[in-house]
Amino acid sequence: MNIHGVAAGVPFVAVPPAHGGAAPLVVVWHLMDPPRTEVAMAAALPLDAVPAWRVYLGLPLMSSRTPAGGFEEIMTLVRDDTLLKCHGAVISQAAAEFPAVVAALREQLPLVGEQLFLVGGSAGGGAALLTLTESELPIAGLVAINAAIRATSVVELVEQGMGIDYQWSAESRALAARLDFVERAAEIMARRPQPDVLIVSGKEDHKTFQDDAAALREALGAHRDGGVVVLAPIEGLAHPLALEPGLEAAPQTAEAAAVEARVAAFLKARIPATPTDA
Fold first, then answer.
1. CB 179 within 8 A of CB 88
2. For residue 274, what pLDDT is reported?
3. Cα separation, 139 vs 98, whole angstroms
4. How far apart are CA 256 and CA 6, in angstroms?
5. Per-residue pLDDT tens digits for 93-124
6. What distance in Å separates the CA atoms of residue 141 and residue 120, rounded to the nearest whole number?
7. Which of 5, 122, 131, 151 has its CA 20 to 30 A from that of 89?
8. Where does the chain have alpha helices with state H?
9. Which 3 state secondary structure label does DSSP give 150?
10. Could you tell me if 36 and 65 are in contact, meaning their C-beta atoms sit under 8 angstroms apart?
11. Residues 6+ apart with CB under 8 A from 31
């Protein structure tokens, strides 16, 4: 049975392994597009074949942390300053709160082993990448799905979609540099041991996101001396992993099932099964 709870102020859905007992930890962040809550992400990407506790975290500004003004207030933040007030702020806060979340999860769930694995889609993928880049926690592997790999690409899409010109400042340029994981690839691969990275890229996703995924694969690969770096294009996959509105659990789409199969295979190869899983 899934567990709904709060860890260090962050809402989560925890899904136990098949055997229901102690197991390693996989943390999953949802998208700001569908699925845009931890509940919806758990349905879109359940990862049932993975012998681990899968814990789906709610992003800042989303799920139970949606502002009082709802979607309209979020759109106001996007128009005011999408990087400093919305997308960049969400990614930064999610990474900042992560160590306390993991500590709280270890008190609430029967987790084994120190190593953990991260999965994230879109902005959630940005949160996973920022955590991998800056956290001192022992992260063994990461899956980035249609991820926000470069903040400048997110800003560009917002400009195109909303017909606005983003007003750059010294602060926003500094944040964009922090959230450019192609440029920070050497830092990521300086971790010891090197993490294994799977980059999932929808062939129907935004062209800039597809280009960023390929650039990240090349940049990480240039510094690889032990870790595995894989780019996995998915036929038919656009940016979302679920249908609108993406707030509640919904039937899994064929495209999300294809993503799940690829992600589950990557994680299962790195997470040892317990005797009861075998």
1. yes
2. 62
3. 12
4. 26
5. 999 999 999 999 999 999 999 999 999 999 99
6. 12
7. 5
8. 38-44, 70-81, 87-108, 123-134, 151-162, 170-178, 185-189, 207-222, 254-268
9. strand
10. no
11. 41, 121, 122, 123, 124, 146, 239, 240, 241, 246
What the block records as the tokens of 56 is: 């789906």
pLDDT for the residue 272: 79
The helix-helix angle for 151-162 and 207-222 (nearest 10°) equals: 180
Q: Which residues contact 96 (CB under 8 A, 6 or more apart)?
A: none
Q: Give 221's contacts (C-beta < 8 A, 6+ positions apart).
A: 229
Question: 123-134 and 87-108 helices cross at what angle (nearest 10)?
Answer: 70
Cβ density class 193-222: b for 16+ within 10 Å, e for less:
ebbbbbbbbbeebbebbbebbbbbbebbbe
Which domain covers residue 140, as residue numbers?
3-268
pLDDT digits (tens, 9 = 90+) for 69-87: 998 999 999 999 999 999 9
CB 108 within 8 A of CB 5: yes
Overall number of domains in the chain:
1
- Domain assignment present for 276: no
CATH number of the domain bearing residue 208: 3.40.50.1820
Residue 42 carries which side chain, given as an amino acid letter?
A
Q: Token digits for 275?
A: 């005797």
Position 104 in a domain: yes
Q: Is 134 helix (H, G, I), strand (E, B) or coil?
A: helix
Q: What's the token pair of residue 47?
A: 């990862």
Reply yes or no on whether the pLDDT at 260 is more than 50.
yes
Examine residue 275 and state whether it is found in any structural domain, yes or no.
Answer: no
